[in-house]
Amino acid sequence: MTTIFDKILDGELPCHKVYEDEHVLAFLDIAPLSEGHTLVIPKERKAFLHELSDEQAAAIGRVLPRLARAVMNATGATAYNILQNNGTAAHQAVFHVHFHIIPRHGERGLGIGWSTSSLDHAAAPELIARIAAALES
Fold first, then answer.
1. How confident is the model at residue 106 (pLDDT cuts 50, 70, 90)?
2. How far apart are CA 103 and CA 110, in angstroms?
3. Is 16 a residue of the active site?
4. Which of 74, 57, 66, 56 is nearest to 19 (CA)?
5. Pairing mode, if any, of strands 24-28 and 99-104?
């Protein structure tokens, strides 16, 4: 399924480009939560973070801190969130991997709730073993 980000990458839709290299494109969000809200997308067309190649993931990892610094410097924000959603239940609306850099300006920015629970220490070793096994496969 073609996404709005595919159309931007293909040049069918314009964007307010902040940064581009061979692997990554960053541009201003057209529905920002705050001034400087920037989207960072890989040029690899995958819906979910876990589908990205190591090369594309590394390319985003290299540029994300630099872009966050630039957004902070340009907007004067002293705090920010990096948001990345995977799947409808996690509030993903565009099914192309993307990261939001969202500066916090007073009340403007990302508002989140954090509903915690307690780690079951007795079950933790078994969970760690399942994760380790998944990493090996």
1. confident
2. 8
3. no
4. 66
5. unpaired
% of the chain surpassing 70 pLDDT: 100
Alpha carbon distance 59, 83 (integer Å): 17
The pLDDT tens digits of the residues spanning 7-39 come to: 999 999 999 999 999 999 999 999 999 999 999
Provide the token pair at 31: 């529905």
Q: How many CA atoms lie within 13 A of 90 on its CB side?
A: 12
Any residues with CB less than 8 A from the CB of 74 and at least 6 apart, and which?
36
List the domains of the chain with CATH numbers: 4-112 (3.30.428.10)
How many Å apart are CA 117 and CA 75, to the nearest integer? 36
| Catalytic residue from among 91, 98, 100, 121 | 98
Helix (H) or strand (E) holding 20: strand 17-20
Residue 33: its pLDDT value, please?
93
Q: Which strand (E) or helix (H) includes residue 66?
A: helix 54-75
Looking at residue 114, its pLDDT comes to 76
Q: Is 101 exposed, middle or buried (0-12, 13-18, 19+ CB in 10 A)?
A: buried
